[in-house]
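Support case: user asked for a sample of complex input and structure output to validate their parser. Sending the pair below.
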Amino acid sequence: MQFEPLKNDRLLRAARGETVDRPPIWVMRQAGRYLPEYHDAKGDRDFFECCRSPEIASTLTLQPVERYAGLIDAAIIFSDILVIPQAMGMTVEMVDKKGPSFPEPLKSPNDGQYEKIMQKQVDVKAELDYVAKAITLTRTKLAGRVPLIGFCGAPWTLFCYMVEGGGTKLFVQSKTWIYKYPDATKALLQKIADICVDFLALQVAAGAQLVQVFDSWAGELSPAAFADFGLPYLRHISANLPQRLQELGLEPVPMTVFAKGAWFALDELCDSGYNVVGLDWLHDPAEAKQIARGRVTLQGNADPGVLYGDRAAITKTVETMVKGFWSDKKGWIANLGHGVTPFVDPDTLKFFFEEIHRLTQ
Amino acid sequence: MQFEPLKNDRLLRAARGETVDRPPIWVMRQAGRYLPEYHDAKGDRDFFECCRSPEIASTLTLQPVERYAGLIDAAIIFSDILVIPQAMGMTVEMVDKKGPSFPEPLKSPNDGQYEKIMQKQVDVKAELDYVAKAITLTRTKLAGRVPLIGFCGAPWTLFCYMVEGGGTKLFVQSKTWIYKYPDATKALLQKIADICVDFLALQVAAGAQLVQVFDSWAGELSPAAFADFGLPYLRHISANLPQRLQELGLEPVPMTVFAKGAWFALDELCDSGYNVVGLDWLHDPAEAKQIARGRVTLQGNADPGVLYGDRAAITKTVETMVKGFWSDKKGWIANLGHGVTPFVDPDTLKFFFEEIHRLTQ
């Protein structure tokens, strides 16, 4: 694949631990519903229909890059972590104002559906070709302005959705599986982890220049349970993706892990084979930097809720990040501690970006 | 108030840091909907109607004490943290399968409702007399079998409910308030904190022998925001309750703080004037014990989800707790890391209690 040369490699260099002139900036879910142009481009299309259309997905991906030109340093492909369960044969619908919903979640290892899912050989290249196409088209449209990030959901998080059937507060089914059916759970987690490796390799082959694994529900697991059901599968991905890329004749790309809520595992995550560790907003920046001891680049971590606040609150939050993460002028990718939430004013987000620029000059 | 002498003071002694023969045991939300006898006694009464009836509330409080006689060491009054917003003049309904709902949450400091709430002098004794009556009746019925715990919601958590109008995932309103209207937020938090002091004193006067403050949403705040909007109001309660009790001619009682999710503040919470610090299940027991350095008694912290598991999973979780918390045979109150969740089999919970007994013999 031939694309125009990258003009802004700040993100990739920072991810690899190299020196950069200022911290690269992007935010999770930067292409999304807080942008009026998102709604214009999406129209009344279904959410997953947008993911499946390379034209729409690339348009949405580029919107924040264009709106915040010169302020942000990366694009992240417009897609969803639940494309993997879909590729595995599960139906997932996006219900307005409710979120994702699986009409037929996995009930127990003894029902026929689990067996079916376990036995199905998933042809990742065929099932998720539309993501590859969206990435390639987006790279072409980006024309080297900023690098493009690919991503997938982590095995534990995807597993939760597959057994809960959607968002949940209590995680009744997920906890039942891990504490009652640990072996069947691990078998499924392993299967998902293998698909993650294939899927991320597919994204890199299509043009993704950095990949991030989102473990959004890591913070539901106790340290002992995370050691059993979370971390090994994150490690499986970081251990196998570089090798897979080599087999495909591709250069390695930096890898980021974001295990939201798994504060207790920060030290281990710094040794888990990823170049970048994403942090949620419960970490004090200076303390996290101390724990990381330069082993990885840290990414984060402003409370997305500060974007509902006034400018003084945003400035204070950025100051705390800059002071903590940028004390040695390296090893930080500026971001939020979670995705942009609905109802955020795009101009407030712009001010957040501008403050990072101003305070790291 | 005269009650029968306490036959089992294990909880109170452990809370005060004294030596006990084995760790006292109780679990949060032990009187609740997982018990079939709860539904029998509640009938089709509204949830808050049960809280307001001393007869029903005391019956529900005693159910786990009777079912698990000899296995648990405390009762906790059947009530709800939202009785304070009700006493402040807000309407709160309990909606089946949805949870609490405020038809008129506080929208902004500039709407009339905020002013009204701020100006209202709350007569805690009059408004929450039903809780006092329930406590006194329960103490009488307990006849000294185990001590009775009183409780209230923490200012930050009650504030979230009052501005969100119910449970939430995104905390849009709460974050808007703290980051946009910090002064109005603090004024309201202070008002709630003063009511908490009055309310806990009322409960002790009525017969509560230990009190717990539940800060269920502490983990939504960044360390900087918790320092501004969480901890000061928890400290206000622990600093003022003993004095208030003294003024009333009452003996001090042990105080417990449970700031769920605020892992980053554990060290500070150990110096915040409480005797006991409750922990959620994300803390590794041995590491938490190390951080606490004997300053407080720790309470917790099994993942409530393990009660959906098999016996091997429960045993493993109890072993981790016993090894970590009970290493020096003191300073631990065995509990879950959050309340009992729905659909738990009462016999599974019994096994959890039995395993704590067996492994601390």
